[in-house]
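TA notes, week 10

Several of you asked for a full example with nothing omitted. So below is the full record: structure tokens for the whole chain, then the designed sequence directly under it. When grading your own attempts, check the secondary structure regions first.
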């Protein structure tokens, strides 16, 4: 049987891996964590990692699935997105081909990773000759915006995101620009639900850092809370109108949030996904 291989990118927000890794551990065959050997981000900024994290990693890896892959992932001649793509390709090569390659960021939490792996297993035929059958598997994001005193604000609606591929020829981020197969799996993205200092660090160090007007974004982010969020609109950090509105949910723990979001059934219907997938099949039929 082909393997379920998971890769994580480890950087300044590495502590979030304590949330994301356990969610996929049981149903993965191997987990590879990419860490810059000089502890640099895609913009060249330095970060530190506490030894206690590596101790935790060793203790939780009861089935010896995890390896930390250290390499030089920062090239000063590249912009942040180019460095991101470079690292993802190097990580994929280290993970090995002709198996499912799943790449997950530290702030992405699968609500049902087992269901995702079953969707992959149903498509193992694409691993037989991946060079001629290049595909991507996408689930759906629930983007978290901001923690409040009693709960959390999240972006209305869901957004698709590519997580797995049989052929990791990444072009931007995890996008290979090949045919996409959409599956009804929800991933909680702890995108902006952080302290202001953590958001500043993220906006200045990730692949899109050169595209963001951080000051304008943060000005609105500071103002919005659970009492006034309906008075605002357009919240996205790149093209604001992509996140038109927010919703509020009570509860702050990941377990509470996952349960309540599941009850709201945010994932697209099977019928909707069937139409999307037929469209993708037809689009790439003669390519």
């Amino acid at each position: 049987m082909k393997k379920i291989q998971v890769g994580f990118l480890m950087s300044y927000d590495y502590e979030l891996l304590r949330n994301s890794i356990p969610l996929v551990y049981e149903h993965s065959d191997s987990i590879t964590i990419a860490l810059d050997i000089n502890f640099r981000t895609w913009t060249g900024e330095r970060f530190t990692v506490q030894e206690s994290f590596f101790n935790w990693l060793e203790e939780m890896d009861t089935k010896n699935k995890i390896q930390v892959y250290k390499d030089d992932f920062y090239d000063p001649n590249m912009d942040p997105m180019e460095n991101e793509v470079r690292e993802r390709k190097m990580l994929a090569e280290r993970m090995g081909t002709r198996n499912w390659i799943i790449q997950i960021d530290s702030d992405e939490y699968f609500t049902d990773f087992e269901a995702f792996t079953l969707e992959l297993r149903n498509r193992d035929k694409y691993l037989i000759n991946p060079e001629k059958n290049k595909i991507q598997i996408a689930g759906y994001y629930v983007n978290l915006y901001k923690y409040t005193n009693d709960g959390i604000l999240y972006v209305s609606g869901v957004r698709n995101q590519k997580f797995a591929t049989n052929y990791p020829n990444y072009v931007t981020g995890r996008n290979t620009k090949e045919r996409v197969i959409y599956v009804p799996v929800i991933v909680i993205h702890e995108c902006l639900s952080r302290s202001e200092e953590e958001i500043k660090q993220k906006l200045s160090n990730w692949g899109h850092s050169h595209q963001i007007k951080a000051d304008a974004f943060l000005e609105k982010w500071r103002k919005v809370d659970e009492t006034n969020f309906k008075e605002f609109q357009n919240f996205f950090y790149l093209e604001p109108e992509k996140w038109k509105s927010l919703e509020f949910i009570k509860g702050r723990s990941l377990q509470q949030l996952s349960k309540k979001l599941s009850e709201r059934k945010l994932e697209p219907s099977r019928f909707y996904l069937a139409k999307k997938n037929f469209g993708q099949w037809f689009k790439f039929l003669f390519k």
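The chain has one domain: 4-193+262-283. Use that as a sanity check on your answer.
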